[in-house]
Amino acid sequence: MARQSRKFKPRHRTRRTLGESITSNSAPKIPHEKPTPHDSGWIIKPPLSSRLYQKSGLGILTSDECIVLSPMEVLFCNWHRHLPLPGENWFENELKKDSDLLAKAVIFDTARSGGELIIPCTNVPHLDSVGGSFAFKWKRNMSHFNSNPVSLIRWFWSFDELNWEELTEWSKLVHSLGYNSDIYVIDEEMEVTMYRISFVEPKGNQKTWSDLNYEEEKSIKKLWSSSVETESGVYIHLTDEWPLPSIGVEHLSGINLRNEESLWLENMIENREHLEDTKLFDNLVNRGLILRPGFKFGSKWRVYDDEVSLSHAPWLIQTKFEVAKTWENVCLSVRLAEGVHKKWLYALNCDSEWKFVQLERWSPGKD
Hints:
Blueprint: E1 36-38, E2 41-44, H1 48-56, E3 60-61, E4 67-69, H2 71-80, H3 90-97, H4 101-111, E5 117-120, E6 135-138, E7 151-157, H5 164-176, E8 180-186, E9 192-200, H6 214-225, E10 228-229, E11 233-237, E12 249-251, E13 254-258, H7 259-270, H8 276-285, E14 290-293, E15 301-304, E16 315-318, H9 327-339, E17 343-350, E18 353-362
Parallel strand pairs: 7-8, 16-17
Antiparallel strand pairs: 1-2, 2-4, 3-4, 5-6, 6-7, 8-9, 9-18, 10-11, 11-13, 12-13, 14-15, 15-16, 17-18
């Protein structure tokens, strides 16, 4: 019954057949010449070389007005510029040289599908890049000759393991150059998912420990002295208003504190230095935020910038202990977060400073 009630067709998936064009543009009356071998790629001669280089940002220009294409670019031109392949077994031979060629060609094709200009870093050595980067991206209708790129692109297989520290450092360097940091992830079905990395500073409007007056702090200390341990933290019976509403949940005529909340509160009352397991919690609470368990959303915390009864949590925050270690699991986390209209953040301590890395899905043509 459920299958019969479907009204929408599945999304069309591009197969990219070798030797067949997937563009709607008409083929030239006189077929283009086949690319010829070169020490660093495949040669395209004028006048086609000029059009590919000037309009499409393809290839590396030589002194005799030819261009040298990488195998990835040859495939793109075969699909979209009616360029014949160099030979019958050309692709298999190139794949033996570079087992990632198929992935890079599909990523390159997908990245250009929204009209943006994607140019491999190796083609524009005059631009500052960052190690590990794949390509630069220009917005639609921008010229790569007289404007700066908007993004640096890096790509991964979906099964690749993630080094968050290294990825964060890469993104920091990219941002320091004035570019967005974009990630393209390809799976074994040759489908590409795009992400953008940014850094955010989550802040809220809730009262913090430093905002408490003398009487409020005294009240909390008195209430704490009569607290009762529970399996999940502590219970504090209330006879008056709780002075720090960002901490704890009101239940059964009292305040229930989770283990992390009770440990943090005890440190504040005793004026003790926070250890590793409460430093991040302390940082976030002192930003005026409310932290609630993210169990239902596959994260450490769901984080509010206003009262829980007045707003939805804008962020889901993950820590290094729970964060996904492969792109397959990252995709699940980000998709779940965006499905409930939240931003997915990863908290990373860099040189005693907390960085909040935001990862969101991106689409061609969104810039």
